[in-house]
Specification:
By secondary structure, this protein is an alpha/beta fold. It has one domain: Spore Coat Polysaccharide Biosynthesis Protein SpsA, Chain A (Alpha-Beta Complex). The strands form three sheets. Strands 1, 4, 5, 6, 7, 10, 11 and 12 form an eight-stranded mixed β-sheet that branches. Helix 5 crosses helix 6. The longest helix has 14 residues. The chain is globular, with a radius of gyration of 17 Å. The chain starts with a strand and ends with a helix.
Length: about 220
């Protein structure tokens, strides 16, 4: 086994307004169960980070052979750091419960690209004009990529990146791709999917429910 799956599930879900994101239901499963279900198709070892107060709840829900539950942190980047610190495999796949429609096909394409380049992530080209707060045009459609999850990368590269990255403080929340770059690896993007949505707000959840009801994912 040379791939471990790391699942970010420590988000408080403030913008969604339904409590910790991991335990929000989508269809007949929680977002955490959706993520672990995909993880088990990829690897025999999954590490999940949840809020400290929800360790038992998560263990009761998805714990068992091959799944380790750890305490997450107050920031996404520090939670990621903790997950990586627990990992031992040479290749790590970082997933997030807010992307419940990531597919096995996408993961397989990411793994193939990561083995060639050191790290890979899904990206979706912007389809709208993007402006700054003053109304100045920044990018036309197709100019930039919207990053998605999961991301797969070399453990050696991310550890090298963390070696020269201090722990995040306050509002500082470095990107994993920036950390990998500091470790000598430039992340390659593969084609993402418009249905690989990120659930952040109530509207996102309603869209996810509609996609599932229409059996589009």
């Amino acid at each position: 086994m040379d791939v471990q799956v790391l699942v970010q599930a420590a988000g408080s879900g403030v913008r969604l307004g339904r409590g910790p994101k991991a335990f929000v239901r989508l269809g007949d499963r929680t977002l955490l169960e959706h993520a672990v279900r995909l993880a088990k198709k990829i690897s025999k070892s999954t590490i999940v980070a949840v809020p400290t107060s929800d360790i038992k709840r998560a263990t009761d829900l998805v714990g068992g052979e091959g799944v380790t539950i750890i305490c997450g942190a107050s920031s996404r980047s520090e939670t990621t750091r903790r997950l990586i610190a627990e990992a031992t495999a040479p290749w790590l796949l970082l997933h997030d419960v807010v992307h419940p429609f990531a597919s096995l096909d996408l993961v397989e394409r990411l793994i193939g690209e990561a083995r060639r380049s050191g790290a890979a992530a899904p990206g979706l080209a912007n389809s709208e004009f993007l402006y700054d707060q003053a109304g100045v045009l920044l990018h036309a459609p197709g100019d930039v990529l919207i990053g998605q999850k999961p991301v797969i990368f070399s453990r050696d590269a991310v550890l090298a990146g963390y070696a020269c990255t201090p722990p995040s403080k306050g509002s500082s929340d470095p990107s994993l791709l920036d950390i990998l770059k500091r470790g000598g690896v430039h992340t390659k993007f593969v084609n993402g999917s418009p249905t690989n949505i990120k659930i952040t707000t109530e509207g996102d959840l309603h869209l996810a429910e509609a996609l599932m009801a229409a059996k589009k994912v």
